[in-house]
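A quick aside before the break. I want you to see a complete sequence-to-structure record at least once, exactly as it would be stored in a machine-readable document. Don't worry about memorizing anything.
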Amino acid sequence: MTSTTFAELGVPTHLTDVLEREGKTHAFPIQVDTLPDTLAGRDVLGRGRTGSGKTLAFSLPMVARLGQAGGRARPGKPRALVLAPTRELATQIDAVIAPLAAAYGLTTTTIFGGVSQHRQEQALGRGVDIVVACPGRLEDLMRQRHVSLDAVEITVLDEADHMADLGFLPGVTRIMTATPAKGQRLLFSATLDNGVDKLVKRFLSNPIMHSVDTESSPVEAMTHHVLHVAGADAKRDVVQALASGRGRRILFMRTKHQAKKLAKQLTAAGIPAVDLHGNLSQAARDRNLAAFAGNTHRVLVATDVAARGVHVDGVELVVHVDPPAEHKAYLHRSGRTARAGSAGDVVTVVLPEQRRETEQLLRKAAIRVRPQAVNAASAEVVALIGEVAPFVAPADAVVPGTPTQQRGQGSRSRGNGGAGGAGGRGRRGGQARAGQPRTGSGSATGAQSRPQGHGAHGGQGSTGGASRAGGASSGASHSGGAAAFSSRGGSGGGRARRSR
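That is the input. The structure line, written in tokens, reads:
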């Protein structure tokens, strides 16, 4: 955080009012550096690590440009486009943009795969000002002529390096080619390797580069720990102990199967946990993320799908249960904590046979930390746990909105308003049909603490991650406020949003 206010940087009053309501008055370094140029209409290349404030850095000039120009989008012709590599990141970005757009009466929607495209077609057909999209589904809709990009005035590429890692650059190139060459273009990326530099040379006109908080630069508020354990049993005990504190924590695994298995084991031990990985449907992702952002489940067990784009306020601990395969994954995983000036701890649990590999990984990530040999009762582990959360019986740790829970309640509905929905289908009990604002319950309600004591169990703790203004479920129409937890997108990106 700097001492520079958004107003001093030239952000319009319509938008500073929204930011002030969200408690945001002073800009972060990457915002201070880029906003004068982006607000002036220049092409900008911004380099900075995850959590440095890039989303707001490009959202403000995008909305300001469209809002001050006036006008409305025609059917199938958005006026602004943001490209993101994952659906979670697309939904996060949309949650930041939507309340800003509402200040000018602009509409936003998300477009990504894994869900029905019907609602996305409907939103585009009504006309939407700002589209936040993943490349694959957007290209599908372009080929089907549901959307044309020839009216786009400003285009943003976010996490361009990750899109390169996922092999998306050919599609990104085709999409960028379909936008007007005279439009403003902003590219944000941690690195310029894997072909990202070619995008810069081809599509940005005389860009101004700003480099703040690159991936390899240290995060002062992030403390790294390397814990050596004697074997698999000791590792299991240490991981369960680390999961037992009151605050939010994310545990990273290498495989989908192991992530699902660990979440079940922790829940059975009285520590409510949810999993996040590529095998989950969009509806299940939404439910689990909403539970983690709410008060019922304080532990998220995830594969690297959550290393980019999932931002939940107040994550105080990241645990690399399985050390990642390469150093960039380590940095992105770790970036789920110590975001936007908050403090956080990052722990890597290392088996004897993983020590050399982990040492090399940390060296590449420019992380210097002395390993410590521990067990679950070690002082180092106890300090990282903090206050132990109350035991929660597994029967009370069911994620709200799951099909099993609904069958037990005798309900035939497929989901609830707080969980979002696969494919953007309208649902009863808190979720409105396309084009209608929802007034659902938002995130999951808090589970009550159990009186019985226990060792390293629990999983509840400090709240964090506000719901959308008016308590609307994610993916619903917006009427102003912002979502602190911005990874829920239950509609599958199909609904346009306009200030009412």
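Two observations worth writing down. Confidence is low (pLDDT under 50) at residues 406-493. The first helix runs from residue 13 to 21. We'll return to this after the break.
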